[in-house]
């Protein structure tokens, strides 16, 4: 939004023809999109974060209001499936925004493999009238990515590279060996003294390193141009076994023919990403924190691991590093777009794309972690075919302008998978490379799968503009899916929007300082099927077990679920109204937008009674949920001179989600989901399935609220230890910690307000940029603190420094450990220097120095408040022994253009 | 003109697209495609139900897994318990609450167990419908025997449902509308089970189910006979529609027709026990052979859950859950250091006295643990010594935090078991002939006869001196002989002791009216089906 006029931003980076040209082209696009669809959020390459960026998802973080990227969760890297545009709108799924890369339907996973230097711009579409073009697939927002292309400006080569180190700077302060011994003795507890003094956090970590290299060629003429690039990213994280490597290659060619009437765009994108993941993050970090610190770091003289066997929920951290959880993702995308100008008003566009995805997964658990060991290999392939034909009409008479288009689209997917799990390994030396050297492949561990869902759409849209002052547009689309019930294949989703460019009105002529004043509003609906998959509506059977029949083990087949053949589209209706204001040549820009979206016919797995049903869940379209919010953006350029320039951008989003209803009627039967449904709980010793639920889904509340017993304080028990004094909230004389017991809504897990801010300053050839993000109004349950303070688990499990003094012998869940999650985080500081070189060979040369993860301001007492606060799953809002130790990245970069 | 073009283009596209919006099943089939011939129907409508006898997840399976039927019939009694051990085994008080009878209708495992049992009933009803609608593919004999087997399986599940939940809905048709799912009196469910089993018995194969071969794992005539004997023995309990009023019908007045003769409950029990003797079942000379890794040749076992780590998914957690960690490690697996025999069980075995029962050493690990003759060491270098008499409900702070309590033995340890010891090859014993003898002894005594021959046959096998067949002695013998086999709750209820004080347990204040002898109808089941009414005792507590 406000960023679109900050042309001078471009100067911050190496000024090249390429970028200026891109800028011009881009401005035109935005003007187009504005006129028909309100105003989409647009982030140009120059504005993409300038700190060290490991992948394109991180590049998005904090750049625009209403878009949240959970970059933490576990390892402070951007999590897949963690990008949320205006929060969660569906319970069962389909909350990931649609990613469109150069027109090709893609997903967040693929976006994360694109090299940030290849991205020309992101456009975030949030309102229904903006996403209408993508129909159901865009129901949860759309991230349009345009990659860089050749410009016809002659041959160019550019290289970007950087190298960084990642030292750990903070981890949980557990008792040292000496403190551990002293505490056990002071408390008179029998403990095992292994005779060592080991800091197990150091055993599993190292100083991480990251490097990136990117090379691009481009060239061509007015009628034909190309761009080819190659990128490599290699990241060895601070955890010894946790590595990523990503290679990307990309070619784009544009050719014009028939006197410029036909334009052909052809592109190929391929990537190969390798991941060495941690097998069980929570187990590893829990083990590193709570392993008896008197135990040795490695094997003993005989090569055996000295185990702390009574601590059954953890393992020797060194052993856990031997587990393997590797994957390889390969992607190939190709697309071809032909645009033909039939006459000056009528244009035909044909678009075809093909994508191939392949994921290989390999896991290995050696016999010293799992008796008999465990080996897993899996291969998953996907193919996507997309065809789109559109006829666009545009004409103008005097002050009138009309655009109309009609298009049809067909999207076919094919997914297959094959996997084997084996046990009974005789040697750990093969790892997962020889699955034949195993004695057993039990039923259920080996399988293959196939599905081919398809989606078709028809769309017509009309937009009318008068005198560049008023625009009105309407879109009608119908989406059909193979996955919904037979009688509900098609859903119809209309949308309308309008804008009023007030600054172009005659009465504004005299107010010359105001360069932009625009009012816009939209209303529309879209369909979502993210909650279901192929075959959900079909009464199908598959293998469900193996029994002995006439002495022969025989596979039986049967149903695995209750089937609802009447499933239909979940519908989300959004209304939005916004205002944009610009003054002093748009050196000051303000935008504000309010939106309200209502999800109806919400797909959800409802509880049904057993009997008469065989299974306890039935997917149906019943409930509803609302999301509303205000998004504000400010951008200022207080200083704009030849040698000095200051830019300040700030975006703030307020969001409120509410689960309105989960009841209704299905086939004459009243269906009511439980009023209170747990979605997140603690895990670990003594917390197995007993009143350990923390985060709930409650009708009338936002998705993901803390529903907890209230702790009045600490009280001494007979043994002289403290326990949590839990309030009898319902006053029935008994304290009941169960789901339906003495609990109350104690706060929400998702932030009410999020903040992103970028400040950049240039003086001559030097520049500096700072990115600051923040989140407010939410809580975090410090499950790590609860577990690591509980002295009843000591000395079996180590505890935090200070825990012996607190003297708490209790592990009941209560609001004692619920804390404010507010934080402000300085994501990065980058200093750049454009070396003024006067050389024919080298057009520009730039050096940068970055610090990422600079500092976090928070009152939260745990390791970091940047846990999963956005994605509704079992980890939402709960800090439960799985946070990565904190590290900073210090890196140097060079970028050169020839 | 333009709009006309647009319309025709849309129509053209629409017709093309509709035909493309179809799912092509490849890795699944439509349900109607799996009943094409007699074999298909047997496999996918009858045998498929045997997948649910054992289980691989919590609360599923008649035995072998946790938080299900077995735990609610064992850890709620004077036989065994899982004590709190510091930070471990607290789990929100789940295990201690079981021991104290402080479960609630909100307990998830009770709901999960209910769902599991009724799932199999509903699937069985559907199987009967499938057999019915595919009669043209079956001979009359096939149709009759398939139907009989499914009805017998369904009766088996209703037996567990009735035993645990008392007044429960009897759903017997595949298309029962939700509004008709209402509770039947417990005595009606009892009659239904008896009638069903008696009705299908002539069509069931008269073959042992526990042995590998054509009938391995199936519900055959001996299984039905055993089940009928069990139901008869507990008929006083099951025929009692108000178990909180302190009045119980007399077994001598509860009449059943067996082979055309009208018999009272005790006589009927004896009649079915005799059928099992006639079928050739007998005590195995070696007590432990019934629980060996390869126990499929036992002449004593009647109904088992077939386990084979390489074939079936079903699991057996109980050894894994009981042993100390280092003990598990020493036999090539892992462990959870949980379940212990109660002190009263250990005392009943004469632990530490000169009269220690010979079965104590077979059924329990106590004192110093040896594996392959070597003493198992703890991490602190001290020998691992289980302390049976140091057991407490909460061991936090005890010097025997990790070692208190005698542990479960009984089953031979399969050193090659998968999943850290949870997938051995030992078949799990559900019904066996020693139980038949003890049932017969008890029925005889309750019917005013002498049951010492049967009681002492069981004692002879383990070289224990004869005892008089009093009801008390028989109950104790059941503990000694059948410990760890999941029968104790039912036995205590039959003996009217379940609600009283025993071992380390004091009764709940309101427990005197025996309301805890059935579990509550899960809250969620009532929420979803308002026809269901909560039992007395639990319902009052709600108010």
Briefly summarize what is shown.
The complex is a heterodimer of chains A (898) and B (543). Chain A is mostly beta strands and 898 residues long.
CATH superfamily of the domain at 2-164 and 207-279 and 323-534 and 565-662 in chain A: TonB-dependent receptor, beta-barrel domain
**CATH C-level name of the domain at 2-164 and 207-279 and 323-534 and 565-662 in chain A:** Mainly Beta
Residue windows where pLDDT falls under 50 for at least 5 positions of chain A: 1-40, 72-81
> What is the CATH-assigned architecture of the domain at 2-164 and 207-279 and 323-534 and 565-662 in chain A?
Beta Barrel
Strand composition percent of chain B: 5-15%
The Rg value of chain B, from CA coordinates, equals 26 Å
Structural class of chain A: mainly beta
Shape field of chain B: globular
Give an account of the 3D structure.
The complex is a heterodimer of chains A (898) and B (543). Chain A has 898 residues and is mainly beta. Chain A is 9% helix and 50% strand. Chain A has a domain at 2-164 and 207-279 and 323-534 and 565-662: TonB-dependent receptor, beta-barrel domain (Maltoporin, Chain A), CATH 2.40.170.20. In chain A, the strands form nine sheets. Chain A has a 22-stranded antiparallel beta barrel. A five-stranded mixed sheet of chain A has the order 1-6-7-4-5. Chain A has a four-stranded antiparallel sheet with strand order 32-33-34-37, with no helix packed on it. In chain A, a hairpin with a 4-residue loop joins β26 and β27 (588-607). Chain A is globular, with a radius of gyration of 29 Å. Chain A starts with 8 loop residues before the first helix and ends with a strand. Helix content of chain B is 39%, strand content 7%. Chain B has a single domain, classed as Serine Threonine Protein Phosphatase 5, Tetratricopeptide repeat (Alpha Horseshoe). Chain B contains 20 helices and 15 strands. The longest helix of chain B is centred in the N-terminal third of the chain and has 26 residues, at 108-133. Chain B has a two-stranded antiparallel ribbon with strand order 2-8. β24 (540-549) of chain A pairs antiparallel with β1 (29-30) of chain B, so a sheet runs across the interface.
């Amino acid at each position: 939004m406000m960023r679109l006029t900050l042309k001078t931003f471009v100067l911050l980076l190496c000024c090249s023809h390429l970028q200026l040209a891109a800028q011009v082209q881009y401005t035109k696009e935005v003007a187009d999109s504005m006129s028909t669809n309100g105003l989409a959020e647009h982030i140009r390459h120059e504005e993409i974060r300038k700190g060290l960026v490991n992948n394109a998802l991180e590049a998005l973080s904090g750049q625009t209001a209403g878009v949240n990227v959970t970059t933490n969760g576990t390892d402070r890297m951007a999590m897949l499936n963690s990008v949320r545009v205006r929060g969660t709108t569906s319970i069962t799924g389909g909350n990931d925004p649609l990613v469109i890369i150069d027109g090709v339907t893609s997903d967040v996973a693929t976006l994360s493999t694109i090299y940030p230097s290849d991205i020309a711009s992101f456009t975030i579409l949030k309102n229904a009238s903006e996403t209408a073009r993508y129909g159901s697939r865009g129901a949860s927002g759309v991230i349009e990515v345009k990659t860089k292309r050749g410009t016809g400006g002659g041959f160019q080569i550019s290289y970007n590279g950087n190298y960084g180190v990642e030292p750990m700077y903070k981890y949980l302060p557990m008792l040292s060996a000496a403190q551990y011994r002293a505490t056990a003795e002071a408390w008179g507890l029998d403990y095992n003294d292994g005779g060592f003094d080991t800091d197990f956090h150091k055993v599993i970590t190292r100083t991480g390193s990251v490097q990136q290299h990117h090379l691009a060629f481009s060239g061509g003429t007015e009628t034909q141009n190309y761009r080819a690039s190659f990128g490599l990213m290699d990241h060895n994280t601070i955890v010894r076994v946790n590595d990523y490597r990503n290679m990307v290659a990309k070619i784009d060619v544009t050719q014009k023919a028939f006197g410029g009437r036909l334009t052909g765009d052809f592109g190929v994108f391929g990537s190969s990403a390798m991941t060495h993941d941690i097998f069980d993050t929570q187990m590893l970090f829990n083990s590193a924190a709570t392993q008896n610190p008197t135990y040795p770091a490695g094997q003993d003289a005989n090569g055996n691991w000295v185990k702390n066997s009574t601590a059954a929920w953890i393992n020797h951290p060194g052993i856990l590093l031997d587990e393997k959880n590797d994957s390889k993702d390969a992607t190939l995308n190709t697309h071809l777009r032909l645009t033909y100008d039939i006459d000056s008003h009528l244009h035909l566009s044909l678009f075809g794309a093909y994508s191939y995805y392949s994921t290989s997964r390999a896991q290995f658990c050696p016999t010293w972690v799992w008796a008999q060991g465990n080996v897993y290999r899996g291969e998953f392939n996907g193919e996507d075919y997309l065809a789109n034909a559109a006829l666009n009409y545009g004409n103008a008479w005097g002050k009138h302008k009309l655009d109309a288009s009609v298009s049809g689209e067909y999207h076919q997917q094919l997914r297959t998978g094959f996997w084997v799990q084996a046990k009974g390994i005789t040697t750990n030396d093969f790892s997962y490379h020889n699955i034949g050297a195993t004695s057993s492949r039990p039923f259920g561990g080996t399988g293959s799968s196939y599905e081919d869902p398809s989606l078709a759409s028809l769309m017509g849209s009309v937009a009318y503009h008068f005198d560049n002052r008023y625009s009105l547009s309407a879109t009608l689309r119908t989406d059909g899916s193979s996955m919904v019930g037979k009688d509900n294949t098609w859903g119809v989703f209309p949308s309308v929007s309008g804008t009023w460019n007030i600054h172009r009105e005659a009465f504004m002529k005299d107010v010359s300082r105001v360069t932009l004043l625009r009012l816009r509003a939209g209303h529309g609906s879209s369909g979502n099927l993210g909650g279901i998959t192929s075959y959900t509506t079909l009464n199908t059977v598959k293998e469900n077990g193996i029994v002995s029949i006439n002495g022969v083990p025989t596979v039986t087949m049967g149903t695995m679920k209750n089937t609802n053949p009447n499933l239909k589209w979940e519908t989300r209706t959004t209304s939005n109204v916004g205002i944009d204001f610009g003054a002093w040549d748009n050196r000051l820009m303000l935008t504000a937008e309010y939106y309200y979206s209502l999800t109806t016919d919400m797909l959800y797995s409802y509880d049904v009674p057993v009997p008469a049903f065989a299974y306890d869940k039935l997917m149906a379209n019943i409930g509803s949920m609302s999301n509303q919010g205000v998004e504000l953006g400010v951008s200022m350029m207080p200083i704009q001179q030849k040698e000095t320039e200051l830019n300040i951008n700030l975006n703030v989003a307020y969001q409120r989600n509410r689960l309105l209803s989960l009841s209704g009627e299905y086939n004459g039967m009243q269906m009511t989901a439980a009023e209170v449904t747990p979605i997140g709980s603690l895990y670990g010793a003594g917390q197995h399935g007993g009143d350990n639920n923390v985060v709930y889904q409650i009708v009338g509340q936002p998705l993901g609220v803390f529903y907890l017993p209230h702790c009045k304080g600490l009280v001494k028990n007979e043994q002289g230890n403290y326990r949590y004094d839990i309030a009898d909230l319902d006053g029935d004389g008994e304290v009941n910690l169960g789901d339906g017991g003495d609990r109350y809504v104690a706060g929400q897990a998702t932030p009410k307000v999020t903040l992103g801010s970028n400040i950049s300053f240039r003086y001559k050839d030097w520049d500096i940029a700072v990115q600051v993000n923040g989140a407010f109004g939410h809580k975090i349950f410090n499950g790590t603190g609860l577990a690591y303070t509980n002295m009843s688990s000591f000395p079996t499990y180590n505890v935090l420094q200070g825990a012996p003094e607190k003297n708490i012998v209790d592990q009941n869940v209560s609001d004692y450990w619920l804390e404010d999650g507010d934080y402000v985080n300085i994501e990065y500081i980058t200093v750049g220097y454009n070396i003024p070189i006067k050389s024919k060979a080298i057009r520009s040369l730039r050096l940068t120095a970055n610090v990422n993860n600079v500092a976090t301001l928070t009152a939260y007492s745990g390791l970091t408040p940047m846990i999963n606060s956005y994605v509704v799953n079992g980890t939402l809002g709960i800090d439960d022994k799985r946070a990565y130790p904190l590290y900073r990245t210090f890196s140097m970069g060079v970028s050169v253009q020839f | 003109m333009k709009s006309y073009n647009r319309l025709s283009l849309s129509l053209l596209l629409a017709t093309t697209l509709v035909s493309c919006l179809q799912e092509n099943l490849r890795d699944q089939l439509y349900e109607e495609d799996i009943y094409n011939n007699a074999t298909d129907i047997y496999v996918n409508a009858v045998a498929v139900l045997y997948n649910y006898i054992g289980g691989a997840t919590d609360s599923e399976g008649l035995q072998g897994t946790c938080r299900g039927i077995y735990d609610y019939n064992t850890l709620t009694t004077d036989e065994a318990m899982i004590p709190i051990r510091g930070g471990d085994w607290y789990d929100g008080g789940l295990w201690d609450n079981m021991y104290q009878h402080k479960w609630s209708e909100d307990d998830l495992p009770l709901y999960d167990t209910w769902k599991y049992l009724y799932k199999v009933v509903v699937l069985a009803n559907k199987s009967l419908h499938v057999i019915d609608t595919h009669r043209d593919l079956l001979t009359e004999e096939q149709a009759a025997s398939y139907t009989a087997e499914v009805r017998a399986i369904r009766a088996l599940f209703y037996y567990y449902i009735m035993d645990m939940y008392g007044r429960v809905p009897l759903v017997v048709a595949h298309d029962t509308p939700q509004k008709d799912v209402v509770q039947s009196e417990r005595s009606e469910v009892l009659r239904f089970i008896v009638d069903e089993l008696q009705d299908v018995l002539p069509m069931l194969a008269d073959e042992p189910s526990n042995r590998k071969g054509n009938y391995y794992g199936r519900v055959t005539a001996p299984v039905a006979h055993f089940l009928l004997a069990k139901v008869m023995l507990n008929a006083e309990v099951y025929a009692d529609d108000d178990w909180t009023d302190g009045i119980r019908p007399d077994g001598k007045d509860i009449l059943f027709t067996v082979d055309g003769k009208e018999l009272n409950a005790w006589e009927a029990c004896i009649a079915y026990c005799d059928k099992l003797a006639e079928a050739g079942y007998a005590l195995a000379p070696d007590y432990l052979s019934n629980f060996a890794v390869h126990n499929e040749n036992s002449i004593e076992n009647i109904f088992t859950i077939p386990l084979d780590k390489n074939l079936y998914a079903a699991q057996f957690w109980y050894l894994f859950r009981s042993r100390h960690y280092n003990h598990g490690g020493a036999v090539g697996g892992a462990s959870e250091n949980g379940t212990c025999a109660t002190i009263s069980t250990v005392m009943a075995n004469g632990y530490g006295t000169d009269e220690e029962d010979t079965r104590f050493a077979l059924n329990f690990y106590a004192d110093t643990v040896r594996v392959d003759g070597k003493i198992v060491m703890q991490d602190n270098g001290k020998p691992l010594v289980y302390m049976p008499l140091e057991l407490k409900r909460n061991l936090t702070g005890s010097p025997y935090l990790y070692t208190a309590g005698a542990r479960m033995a009984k089953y031979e340890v399969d050193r090659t078991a998968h999943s850290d010891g949870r997938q051995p090859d030992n078949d799990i014993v559900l019904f066996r002939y020693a139980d038949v003898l003890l049932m017969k002894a008890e029925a005889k005594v309750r019917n005013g006869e002498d049951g010492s021959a049967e009681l002492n046959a069981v004692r002879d096998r383990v070289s224990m001196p004869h005892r008089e067949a009093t009801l008390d002695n028989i109950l104790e013998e059941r503990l000694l002989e059948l410990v760890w086999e999941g029968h104790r709750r039912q036995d205590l209820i039959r003996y009217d002791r379940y609600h009283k004080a025993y071992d380390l347990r004091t009764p709940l204040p309101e427990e005197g009216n025996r309301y805890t002898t059935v579990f509550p109808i899960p809250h969620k089941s009532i929420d979803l089906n308002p026809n269901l009414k909560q039992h007395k005792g639990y319902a009052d507590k709600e108010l």
